[in-house]
Amino acid sequence: MARDTTDFRPIEGVDELVEHLAEGNKPRDKWRIGTEHEKFPFYVDGNAPVPYGGEHGIRAILEGMQEKLGWDPIMDAGRIIGLVEPTGQGAISLEPGGQFELSGAPLETIHQTCREGNAHLAQVREIAEPMGIRFLGLGGSPKWSLAETPKMPKSRYEIMTRYMPKVGTKGLDMMYRTCTIQVNLDFESEADMRRKMQVSLKLQPLSTALFANSPFTEGRPNGFQSWRGDIWRDTDNQRSGLLEFCFSPDFGFADYVGWALDVPMYFVIRDGQYHDMTHVTFRQFMAGAARNEIPDGLPTMGDWANHLSTLFPDVRLKRFLEMRGADGGPWRRICALPAFWVGLLYDAAALDAAEALTSSWSYEEVLAMRNAVPEQGISAPFRNTTLREIARDVLVISRMGLKNRGRKNRDGYDETSFLSTLDEVVARGTTSAEELLSAFHTRWGGSIEPVFMEYAY
Predict the structure, then answer these.
(1) pTM higher than 0.85, yes or no?
(2) What domains does the chain contain, in order, with CATH numbers?
(3) Which residues form each disulfide bond in the chain (predicted)?
(4) Which of 91, 123, 367, 392 could make an S-S bridge to 103, C-beta 3.0–4.6 Å?
């Protein structure tokens, strides 16, 4: 999320919180695709991490991008921490360890998403390459220790950094040493949200497997195909993971609100200052728990929107649905991830087929799949088969959905071509992570350094 929300409307009751989510309902002709992708900046000289400050640091990249694009700066305590397009059509933000993120504009087609990603990467290269900086498309930082990883001067991250070790063993790794590709998708009603939430929660482990791309830590193989997937198993389980209550046949907005109310907060913002609120849940906040701690002590709709942005389930519900399972990766993956989910969820026949395929999958089975994927990728077992075979069926459905959409580019090609990188994973029977491990043990001669050349933007 590029910019934390300020909305000073007071909250009168829980019904307003439910209505906040329901306001995301959109007619089909208004559905859009919002793609986010993160990458690790590094100095070409020595493949070293890039700090925030200095003549050739991340602040300088942001300032150069601001001058080039004319976007508005996002400031935190007087420091530039991101950029936002003046009409809200996209933003650039920083993750805690300096991961550079584009939060894309809400677009109509995957063709537009790919053009947006291409343009962004070209723009950031134009600014960064004269500084000796490039960007790495992996799901996990392959070389630098946590101590070696820079820290960005962002107030919400200071609060999270103090809090994470209290609630899990891997939260700091999640913050500072992972990257993802995400897509944000719309729904037209509560019932439509329910169907999409349930299908995408069940298939999120498959997405993690298909996009597994984080097999190295601190210069060596880490034992995982998706180290990032493993990290999410013990980051902060109060606010992340696979949500069992979402599997209920009558799951709705109120259920998600009920869960979110009982998750500890991270912060509230008053007069530009961030106040640590990790000691109370949002429900306690609404009951007056912070009345003597912060100015005005009463919750606002801006506080609620910010709280929703600090929840990390595999599929996150805001006024849209966020698909959160995939590792970061090279350019083709930036296009493949939204194509995969748009094909499954934005066509009625495809959603019907995906729902039929997964309807009998239980929470326990999906959880077991989720736990197997970080180590085993698409070889992970499911019932009497493997995720590789499940992926064949799911890609057929996604391709059907994209074909049915019929969104063609100026050369007459539809969106199905963007699935080709995932078709290759299934055809090979090996993930990107396994290909990287093979290279490490053979042509790279046990060195991690070549990854910075082969997976650089």
Answers:
(1) yes
(2) 14-455 (3.30.590.20)
(3) 114-335
(4) 91
